[in-house]
């Protein structure tokens, strides 16, 4: 990194500091919810519904939070959303009620993804065209590593529901660097959302891939821990399983990007989906062997985290100059959120009939996306855009950070 770019990034280091602690707390609590509910005898359908409320909050955040942030400002928005998140954690610690927890998870999802919009719009405001790709890469790495680190806290003995206290502390630690920042607050411009049918007509493969990517990620963070706990009866195994998948996702992003730039998104989406289906099938035969579990987990991580970035790249490949890439990117993120929302509900219902149903679902969806992808038109090599990595959790303003948006506007 050049000296010029290094000094360009330094002023936004406070944002990276905040998102580090926020993501640790987010990753830890999101995984722990399903584990805690399962250990307390809550049925799988209820667990799925409670977890789905988190992503319902995320969806509504992408619609309504921008208006709130524009009216009160970024600093006040961040501190208030963070405070509300802490309140939800503490109330969950004090009271155990399924209906109440659903409401609290909804509020937490709305607040968390609203905070991401605050962070991302700030990063975009302070990122020049020259360093936008680097800023997005740093943002992604922080997200993966911080979320993985959050899983390690689950291995601490005798923490149990105190995880909510620890999560509250981590979120609170993220506030001072934002509250005291001297970074100028950017203006959030209103945007008009495309309808999903219209987006599907324009970029059908991208829309389908983003939705399925949401199903994989939403069910992974919320219901995969429930499956692992049920099968291995160990929170430690849950923790290491989650870490292994997340690190696999981090390591795969750049190689998959390079390969997809060379051979095209359609083919790589098909290959990634097929590998997901095969890997998911292997989970049905590993028995109680934790080594095989971690190997399969790593292979799963290599594929499921790359589908959403691949969908964005595919959309950029096929869009014409008259298309609004920014709005389409936001709508694909919305579709991804819908997938994350329905996933816990579907898996929770399927768990009622078969313990391994989550991986059967993964295999079936993976095979479907493989053939669906191959059925779509190939994009010529000279029309391919450049693959860009995005974090595994993003707010509605992540599209502004995508360097391809800048290129399209030029």
Write the layout of secondary structure elements.
Blueprint: H1 3-9, H2 13-39, H3 44-72, H4 74-94, H5 98-126, H6 132-152, H7 163-173, H8 175-179, H9 196-202, H10 204-222, H11 224-232, H12 235-263, H13 265-282, H14 290-304, H15 307-318, H16 325-351, H17 357-374, H18 398-401, H19 403-409
Helix pairs in contact: 2-3, 2-6, 2-7, 2-11, 3-4, 3-5, 3-16, 4-5, 4-7, 6-12, 9-10, 10-15, 10-16, 10-17, 11-12, 12-13, 12-14, 13-14, 13-15, 13-17, 15-16
GO molecular function, one term: transmembrane transporter activity
Subcellular location: Cell membrane
Main location: membrane
Descriptive report:
By secondary structure, the chain is mainly α. It has one domain: Growth Hormone, Chain: A, CATH 1.20.1250. Helix content is 77%, strand content 0%. The protein has 19 helices and no strands. α2 packs antiparallel against α7.
For the record, the count of structural domains works out to 1
The CATH architecture: Up-down Bundle
Strand elements, count: 0
Shape: globular
Helix content: over 70%
Question: Remind me, CATH topology?
Answer: Growth Hormone, Chain: A
Structural class: mainly alpha
What portion of the residues fall into strands of 2 or more residues? Answer: under 5%
Q: Can you tell me the CATH superfamily?
A: MFS general substrate transporter like domains
Please tell me how large the radius of gyration is.
20 Å
| Mean pLDDT reading | 85
SSE topology string = HHHHHHHHHHHHHHHHHHH
End-to-end C-alpha gap: 24 Å
Task: List low-confidence stretches.
Answer: none
CATH class reads: Mainly Alpha
Count of individual helical segments:
19
Largest sheet: none
Keywords: Cell membrane, Membrane, Transmembrane, Transmembrane helix, Transport
GO molecular function: transmembrane transporter activity
Domain Major facilitator superfamily (MFS) profile: 202-410
Transmembrane segments: 12-33, 45-65, 77-96, 102-123, 135-156, 162-181, 202-228, 234-256, 268-286, 292-310, 331-351, 357-374
């Amino acid at each position: 990194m050049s000296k010029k770019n290094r000094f360009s990034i330094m002023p936004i280091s406070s944002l990276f500091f905040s998102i580090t602690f926020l993501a640790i707390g987010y990753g830890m609590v999101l995984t722990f919810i399903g584990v805690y509910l399962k250990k307390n005898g809550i049925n799988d359908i209820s667990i799925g519904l409670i977890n789905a409320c988190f992503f319902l909050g995320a969806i509504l955040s992408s619609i309504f939070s921008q208006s709130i942030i524009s009216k009160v400002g970024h600093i006040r928005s961040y501190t208030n959303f963070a405070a509300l998140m802490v309140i939800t954690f503490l109330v969950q610690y004090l009271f155990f009620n399924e209906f109440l927890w659903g409401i609290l998870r909804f509020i937490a999802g709305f607040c968390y993804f609203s905070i991401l919009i605050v962070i991302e719009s700030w990063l975009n405001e302070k990122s020049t065209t020259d360093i936008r790709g680097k800023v997005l890469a740093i943002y992604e790495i922080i997200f993966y590593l911080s979320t993985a680190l959050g899983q390690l806290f689950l291995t601490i003995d005798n923490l149990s529901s105190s995880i909510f206290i620890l999560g509250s502390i981590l979120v609170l630690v993220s506030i001072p660097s934002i509250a005291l920042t001297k970074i100028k607050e950017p203006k959030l411009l209103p945007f008009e959302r495309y309808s999903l049918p219209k987006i599907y007509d324009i970029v059908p493969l991208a829309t389908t891939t983003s939705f399925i990517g949401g199903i994989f990620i939403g069910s992974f963070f919320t219901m995969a821990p429930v499956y692992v706990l049920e099968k291995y009866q160990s929170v430690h195994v849950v923790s290491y399983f989650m870490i292994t998948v997340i690190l696999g996702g981090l390591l795969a992003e750049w190689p998959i990007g390079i390969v997809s730039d060379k051979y095209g998104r359609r083919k790589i989406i098909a290959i990634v989906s097929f590998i997901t289906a095969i890997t998911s099938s292997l989970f049905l035969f590993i028995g109680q062997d934790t080594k095989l579990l971690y190997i399969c987990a790593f292979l799963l991580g290599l594929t499921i985290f790359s589908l959403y970035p691949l969908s964005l790249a595919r959309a950029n490949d096929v869009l014409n100059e008259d298309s609004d890439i920014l709005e389409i990117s936001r709508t694909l993120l919305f579709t991804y959120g819908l997938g994350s929302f329905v996933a816990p509900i579907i898996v929770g219902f399927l768990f009622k009939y078969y313990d391994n149903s989550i991986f059967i679902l993964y295999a079936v969806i993976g095979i479907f996306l493989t053939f669906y992808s191959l059925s779509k038109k190939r994009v010529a090599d000279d029309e391919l855009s450049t693959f860009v990595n995005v974090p595994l959790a993003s707010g509605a303003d992540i599209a502004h950070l995508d360097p391809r948006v800048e290129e399209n506007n030029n």
